Amino acid sequence: MAEAKSFADVFHCMLTSWKTFLSFLLLILCVASLGFLGFVIMNKYSGATIKAISFSATGPKVIFVTESSSGTKEYLLVVHPQGWQNTGIHIEEGNKISVKADGRVNIDGGGLFRTVIARKDLEDKIKKDRHLDDKSADQKQTPEYYFSDEDKKKTMVLRPWVDPSGFASNTADEQIMQLTFGNRAERLELKGANLGCLIGRIGESSASSPPFKIGKALPDTTIQTTGDLWLNVNDVKNLQSDLPQQMFYQDNLGCFWVVVTVNLK
Length: 265
Prior knowledge:
Strand content: 25-35%
Largest sheet: 6 strands, antiparallel
CATH topology of the largest domain: Jelly Rolls
CATH class of the largest domain: Mainly Beta
Radius of gyration: 23 Å
Number of domains: 3
Oligomer: single chain
Number of helices: 4
Shape: globular
CATH superfamily of the largest domain: Galactose-binding lectin
Number of strands: 10
Distance between the termini: 64 Å
């Protein structure tokens, strides 16, 4: 049976073989072209036209913008869980906006890392103690076969990946909040909203426009102020000026796909 290759092995093969590398680039180009073609066809038959296309690996830059004959603009963008980010979508007072979001984020990258290390240490210990054969197809030769209940707890992620709704309140998920210092719950960017949920505000300062909850969907909402739309993942904000302002966002991972619809009329 052929030995399985890791991503590092595949990447090394691409770098050392120009033919393989060119084939990989061609594959990426074909996938991107098919996606673009599908988007063009979709907009052609939906009555909308593409106004702008851009790509970015930093922040929630707009990827696609479409505008319909009815005066509605639709923006597709990606939001990273790294603090408040300006989408560049300008909203005028009186505009109606709606939002739909999907994706997964994890607000405890350190916990993920510790869980992986704990599992690796357990596997190494059990393999050594029981003299397991890692080449065998016998399930009894795998470390997890011998995990105790306590071992299983050590390998479970305490803060799992969540969708834009965040950790549901008034459920068992709410106990997640008790894993940190209690007073930090008072310092969420949007107090009272689910930890890890998608939130937004209009303008750079929350003093002029308080944050509002978006979650997986925000129905048509009339905006009462003017400014750019800012998006964020609800996490703890740091109030001490001598500490990094994004300290509690540094271990966040993942992203949300967000569609923002703005009715200009």
